[in-house]
Amino acid sequence: MDRSPRVGILGGGQLARMTAEAARELAVEIFVLESEAGSPAGQVVGADHELVGSWRELSDALRLAELVDLITLENEFVEANLLAALIERGTPVLPGPATLRRVQDKLLQKQTLAARGLPVPAFRHVAKLDDLLAAGRDLGWPLVLKARRLGYDGHGNATVAGPGGAGAAIAQLADARSEGVLDLYAEAFIPFVAELAIMVTRTPNSQQMAYPLVETVQRDHICHEVVAPARVPDEVAARAAEVALASVEAVDAVGVVGVELFLLADGTILVNELAPRPHNSGHYTIEGCRTSQFENHLRAVLGRDLGRTDLVAPGVAMVNLLGTRRAPAAPRGLERAAAVPRAYPHLYGKREVRPGRKMGHVTALGDSPEDALATARHAASLIEW
Q1: 236: nearest Cα among 273, 190, 200, 194
Q2: Residue 114 lies in a domain
Q3: Residues 152, 183, 9: CA angle, nearest 5 degrees
Q4: How many Å apart are CA 254 and CA 28, to the nearest integer?
Q5: Full DSSP string of 234-280
Q6: What pLDDT tens digit does each residue of the chain (385 aa) get?
Q7: Please, are residues 76 and 104 in contact by the beta-carbon 8 Å criterion?
Q8: In a shared domain, residues 342 and 232
Q9: d(Cα 81, Cα 314) in Å, to the nearest integer?
Q10: How would you write 130-171 as a 3-class SS string?
């Protein structure tokens, strides 16, 4: 090939933006498909590499396919049948439709992992109210009711304290188009002592590499902070890596996969969820690891050797910059935050602030995880919206 490889991304948000930034070092051209011009990724790749359209529409995805050598994803909500149609027309897509089918349906995801003997919370399919009541009797109350598809950042989840709240929880999550047939499942409520995550990168020839295990701090189901390495015993970290690598193999993913885990008081590790693309819990890798998750995602889908994943400092932390009100985005204090030693602010270029919306993040390096977290928190506090 006489020219640089061309990779298309279905989606133009912050994950595509940071992937495009990583692509520069690899001499890879990025094209994105997003619903509005000037998307976060479009601001990086330029107007001539940003297609305006819907990544849910095959006709728009085909326009992207005409420009690139392969297509990858920014989120797991693209229909697997659309990806299969792109492949049938000659454009490679990684991760592929079979992986998406296993992962985007969270009940099927859990069934796939459980069939491999991997540790997951106890779960039950819920197609009607009686199923939820039976799950409560079998698994115990409280339990967590979840939508099988399209849930993120707490959307699509409801904690059910007991039989009296079952009807309201179903009404909250039921799709108006379901006509009485529910697309839900229930999981046992897990009394975890920490939420952990690992980014795993996997190539088409099944080479796999795991990033360090990290601790995540979630509030209202939204990630607020990430600390690396996780402050857990070595045997827990080793078990978590083993489970994460096996989980990614189970769904036959290619590229980066975010593996979210629960740690129980007795040291048990359970898989919470998989995300088959670069993940918020891995943003710290841009400055914190030898090779970022975004660069390794591109290396993986292009079939290149993977880069090293070890930390560059004894401690690394990331703090998300979340919106607290609804207003046009007008960030202040970025220069002050950037002047904090060993702190690295990233803004995503979103035009509107909304409560809980991820507007950027700050990564920091430190002599310990606690030192890095203190620095990241300080720098983040200097940025106002």
Answers
A1: 194
A2: no
A3: 40
A4: 18
A5: HHHHHHHHHHHHHHHHHTT--EEEEEEEEE-TTS-EEEEEEESS--G
A6: 578 999 999 999 999 999 999 999 999 999 999 999 999 999 999 999 999 999 999 999 999 999 999 999 999 999 999 999 999 999 999 999 999 999 999 999 999 999 999 999 999 999 999 999 999 999 999 999 999 987 665 678 889 999 999 999 998 887 644 445 578 999 999 999 999 999 999 999 999 999 999 999 988 878 999 999 999 999 999 999 999 999 999 999 999 999 999 999 999 999 999 999 999 999 999 999 999 999 999 999 999 999 999 999 999 999 999 999 999 999 999 999 999 999 999 999 999 999 999 999 999 999 999 999 999 999 999 999 8
A7: yes
A8: yes
A9: 44
A10: HHHHHHHHHHCCCEEEEECCCCECCECEEEECCHHHHHHHHH
Q: Residue 63 corresponds to which tokens in the numbers above?
A: 């326009």
Cα torsion 242, 248, 249, 254 to 10°: value is -140
Question: Which CATH number belongs to the domain containing residue 163 in this structure?
Answer: 3.30.1490.20
Pseudo-torsion of CA 310, 313, 314, 320, nearest 10°?
-90
- Given a contact cutoff of 8 angstroms between Cβ atoms, the answer to whether 226 and 212 are in contact is no
CATH number, domain with residue 336: 3.30.470.20
Judge whether 197 and 270 are in contact, CB under 8 Å. no
Bridge-based pairing of strands 29-34 and 50-52 is: parallel
